[in-house]
């Protein structure tokens, strides 16, 4: 009996020494600075209705690279140009993972889109499709006539309203959505059908409401994403809304794909892709794809392009006009450049932008001052990495935060955002800017 006890004691002592030696040899983990987390909730108590502003305030105290705790997950936040370059460019592959979120699961066909798909063959193929097929210079140039037609329609509408107050925001949103709808879906869904016998799958109002809801739900801070074991409770009601939205969008996208497939069948050998849904359907039928693009993938990609190209353009143009109205000297210089380079006998064309450096600089400055997405979609570290002497563990969530100037646009990716956009874009055409 004593012999057995002696052997057990010796074995336990040996294991303990090995574990102790291993712990002593292990390099001390040097995490980025940040606030001390509470049990269970971490630092969620420090995050307000507009997470990007809360994180900006914390970065002022803890520096351009900090770590906070969102429930069960460490979140590393880069908030300087250098940190953004390190995260998004230098270590792009390491930080190319995506965390699992309710938005990715319920609003993008279970992570089948471009934005939320995890790193791997499917993600690499999606990225290649975007660069080589969907957003190639040749294809975007082929859609220039759509942009010209919609812009001319906007100017006609504004001219007809001359002498009356105009809420420019609504017009900008419409023209942006019309352009993207025609480029991606082949037609616009923001106008009433002229054929009374043709039943609309969604009304223009419903289509805009669906997009607004999609923007919001993909930007909210859902507690279940940070504390997974309470996700089933849906404490904020976001998951219920995501499921409802998902059904509406799927019904709409099924209708769109059915229309495109019907045209392809009718035209047979004379069929040629006219819009991006056509291109995606053509790619989906390619037997040489590394990963087959399923029908739900086509719908997810199309939904991404509609959502990503509408709000961003309209909000940026709105901020540009707002800033110009506040600075008459900038307006005068921009007008002088247009008169000198373009003249008053013709419209500005896209190819003219290379000869308009001042107006181009205005656009760049507006995007710096009022980023459409001051807080980018979260990434996930695929392996351990060291940045500026700080260690970031595999699985950490990583955020790139815009803080060149305190972001003033909270955008519709946050719950309380309807009042954050400027109201000075209400003016009367034909009257002098004030």
Q: Can you walk through the features of this model?
A:
It comes from Salix purpurea (Purple osier willow). It holds the Pfam family p450. This protein has 434 residues and is α+β, with helices and mostly antiparallel strands. The protein has 15 helices and eight strands. The protein has a domain at 102-326: Cytochrome p450 (Orthogonal Bundle), CATH 1.10.630. The strands form three sheets. A four-stranded mixed sheet has the order 1-2-7-4, sandwiched between helices. The protein has a two-stranded antiparallel sheet with strand order 3-8. Strand 5 and strand 6 (390-392) form a beta hairpin. Helix 8 packs antiparallel against helix 13 (295-326). The N and C termini lie far apart (98 Å). Mean pLDDT is 85; it is low at 406-434.
CATH superfamily of one domain: Cytochrome P450
* CATH topology category name of one domain: Cytochrome p450
Structural class: alpha+beta
Number of helices: 15
Major sheet, described briefly?
A: 4 strands, mixed
How are the SSEs placed, and which strands pair?
Elements: H1 2-25, H2 51-62, E1 65-70, E2 73-78, H3 81-90, H4 102-107, H5 121-134, H6 137-142, H7 144-160, E3 166-167, H8 168-185, H9 204-217, H10 223-226, H11 238-267, H12 276-284, H13 295-326, H14 328-341, H15 357-369, E4 379-380, E5 385-387, E6 390-392, E7 397-400, E8 426-427
Parallel strand pairs: 2-7
Antiparallel strand pairs: 1-2, 3-8, 4-7, 5-6
Helix pairs in contact: 7-8, 8-13, 9-11, 12-13, 13-15
Characteristic terms for this protein:
Cytochrome p450; two-stranded antiparallel ribbon; 434 residues; alpha+beta; 8 strands
């Amino acid at each position: 009996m004593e012999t057995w006890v002696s052997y057990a004691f010796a074995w336990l002592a040996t294991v303990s020494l090995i574990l102790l030696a291993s712990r002593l040899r292990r390099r001390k983990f040097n995490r980025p600075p940040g606030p001390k987390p509470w049990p269970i909730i971490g630092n969620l108590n420090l995050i307000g209705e507009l997470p990007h502003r809360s994180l900006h305030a914390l970065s002022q105290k803890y520096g351009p690279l900090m770590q906070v705790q969102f429930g069960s997950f460490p979140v590393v936040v880069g908030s300087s140009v250098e940190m953004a370059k390190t995260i998004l460019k230098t270590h792009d592959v390491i930080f190319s993972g995506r965390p699992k979120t309710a938005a990715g699961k319920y609003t993008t066909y279970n992570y089948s889109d471009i934005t939320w798909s995890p790193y791997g063959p499917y993600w690499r193929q999606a990225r290649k499709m975007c660069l080589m097929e969907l957003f190639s210079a040749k294809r975007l140039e082929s859609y220039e006539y759509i942009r010209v037609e919609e812009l001319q329609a906007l100017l006609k509408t504004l001219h007809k309203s001359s002498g009356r107050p105009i809420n420019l925001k609504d017009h900008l949103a419409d023209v942006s959505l019309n352009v993207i709808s025609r480029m991606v879906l082949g037609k616009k869904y923001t106008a009433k059908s002229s054929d009374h016998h043709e039943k609309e799958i969604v009304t223009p109002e419903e289509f805009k409401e669906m997009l607004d809801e999609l923007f919001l739900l993909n930007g909210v801070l859902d507690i279940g994403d940070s504390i997974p074991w309470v996700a089933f409770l849906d404490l904020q009601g976001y998951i219920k809304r995501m499921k409802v939205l998902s059904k509406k969008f799927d019904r709409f996208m099924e209708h769109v794909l059915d229309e495109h497939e019907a045209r392809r069948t009718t035209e047979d050998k004379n069929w040629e892709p006219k819009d991006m849904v056509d291109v995606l359907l053509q790619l989906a039928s390619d037997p040489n794809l590394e990963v087959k693009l399923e029908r739900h993938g086509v719908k997810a990609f199309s939904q991404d392009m509609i959502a990503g190209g509408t709000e961003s353009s309209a909000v940026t143009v709105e901020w540009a006009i707002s800033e110009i109205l506040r600075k008459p000297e900038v307006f005068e210089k921009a007008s002088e450049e247009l008169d000198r380079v373009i003249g008053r006998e013709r419209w500005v064309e896209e190819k003219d932008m290379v000869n308009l450096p001042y107006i181009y600089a205005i656009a760049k400055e507006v995007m710096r001052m009022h980023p459409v997405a001051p807080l980018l979609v979260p990434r996930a570290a695929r392996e351990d990495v060291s940045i500026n002497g700080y260690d970031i563990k595999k699985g950490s969530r990583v955020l790139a935060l815009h803080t060149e100037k305190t972001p003033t646009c909270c955008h519709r990716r946050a719950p309380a955002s309807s009042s954050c956009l400027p109201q000075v874009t209400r003016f009367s055409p034909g009257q002098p800017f004030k």
